[in-house]
Write a structure and sequence with these properties.
It is a single chain. The chain is mostly helical and 152 residues long. It has a domain of 103 residues. Helices cover 45% and strands 11% of the residues. The protein has six helices and three strands. A three-stranded antiparallel β-sheet has the order 1-2-3. Helix 1 packs antiparallel against helix 2, helix 1 packs parallel to helix 3 and helix 2 runs antiparallel to helix 3. The longest helix has 22 residues. The N and C termini lie far apart (47 Å). The mean pLDDT is 87.
């Protein structure tokens, strides 16, 4: 252990932050200090905007006009793998609103992809309902309840 070096802070990256005003981004999460409805303070933890954008970009890569040649089960399987992985990592803290927003985005992306793939013959919003996306096509449903509430 003679070669062990002491740990030092990186002065360029280290700074003091007022959590009440700006919060921090750490490991893909945004952490901010907020007040609850009862007036008590709590640490609000949700996926950062950059993480949400990365998920949208992955879904765009899988479901775009260049991938319409793929079979529906193959494309939905790839989308489900991405959604399950993202939800497994980010389903902590207060991520319910973000999960709902990403669920709607993934459904809309698949809906438009199916509509173009099938020749735009059907009504986009009436035929490809959210229920049909989940039941008929097998799209993964992101968790829309808090993890601590689901564990009860």
């Amino acid at each position: 252990m003679a070669d062990a070096k002491e740990l030092t802070l990186n002065e360029a990256k280290t700074r003091l932050v007022n959590m009440h005003q700006e919060g921090i981004r750490f490991l893909g999460f945004t952490l901010t200090w907020r007040k609850s409805f009862r007036g008590k303070g709590y640490m609000h933890v949700e996926p950062s905007p950059k993480s949400q954008s990365a998920l949208r970009d992955k879904l765009k890569d899988i479901l775009n006009h260049r991938t319409e040649w793929r079979s529906i089960p193959e494309a939905v399987g790839d989308v489900n793998r991405v959604l399950r992985g993202w939800a497994g990592y980010f389903h902590h803290g207060n991520s319910v609103k973000v999960m709902g927003r990403m669920q709607r985005y993934s459904q809309n992306r698949l809906r438009r992809w199916l509509w173009r793939k099938q020749g735009c013959r059907r009504s986009l919003w009436q035929h490809y309902t959210p229920e049909r996306m989940l039941q008929n096509y097998g799209l993964h449903k992101l968790p829309t309840t808090a993890k601590w509430k689901a564990a009860r």
